[in-house]
């Protein structure tokens, strides 16, 4: 099994297309670094502006008109708490460190997802297109092992991409801003209602951010892998995955009042909502989302494995 996985990884990394795609991620990192270096790190009058913002938030909370919903009021109260924490602990809102730069670069997850979709959408279907699937099947290994080795190689590539993004952004950020501030408290834009300021450092948040990003890449890679195993067409597998992912994200954001959407895959893939946001539906927890994702992935594998193991290679 180990030799099969190594062989599949070699197939991925030996292709020039893979390094072109990886190069796009590196280019995006350099572009982000250029813009970050040109931005003003700390505004001289940030304390005055933050004090004014706190006063405005306090006035909004005291507004007797009742325009604020309970949820909006709770969010505003929590934002006020964190803004006051910034002021009390001398943490400028525009303060930039290598850790926060790496956090910001995680926003390029969409580009990384496209790269993973292309790799996963091609890894099985290309074997059928080139006819090399016959060379795999004449080996004394089962189709299930071939299926698993290709899938594991796909996941390992996603891991490589996340390590490249996280490590590369830390390296570039360190060169630009230094490596201080690892233990500095992380202040999210929309914190959880029960989140206490100072409980999460930027280093911890960075690990959580890239861990959540890795899981998302594994989800979209699994979808692409399913289509790749089922369609025998790389173009079709990649296109279908991008359409399904885009539509899935849109549907998740378009039906916020339908409680059944909490069982929708793409409502659960953004795990950061449990650390620095607010889950869209009451009762949703990190364990719930992980369970929903697991059920979907098992379903995808059941479909892909059934088709792959029964496929007629002579067709």
From TrEMBL:
<feature type="transmembrane region" description="Helical">
    <location>
        <begin position="286"/>
        <end position="308"/>
    </location>
</feature>
<protein>
    <submittedName>
        <fullName>ABC-2 type transport system permease protein</fullName>
    </submittedName>
</protein>
<feature type="transmembrane region" description="Helical">
    <location>
        <begin position="151"/>
        <end position="179"/>
    </location>
</feature>
<dbReference type="Pfam" id="PF12679">
    <property type="entry name" value="ABC2_membrane_2"/>
</dbReference>
<dbReference type="GO" id="GO:0140359">
    <property type="term" value="F:ABC-type transporter activity"/>
</dbReference>
<feature type="transmembrane region" description="Helical">
    <location>
        <begin position="207"/>
        <end position="227"/>
    </location>
</feature>
<dbReference type="GO" id="GO:0005886">
    <property type="term" value="C:plasma membrane"/>
</dbReference>
<feature type="transmembrane region" description="Helical">
    <location>
        <begin position="234"/>
        <end position="252"/>
    </location>
</feature>
<keyword id="KW-1133">Transmembrane helix</keyword>
<keyword id="KW-0812">Transmembrane</keyword>
<feature type="transmembrane region" description="Helical">
    <location>
        <begin position="18"/>
        <end position="37"/>
    </location>
</feature>
<keyword id="KW-0472">Membrane</keyword>
<feature type="transmembrane region" description="Helical">
    <location>
        <begin position="109"/>
        <end position="130"/>
    </location>
</feature>
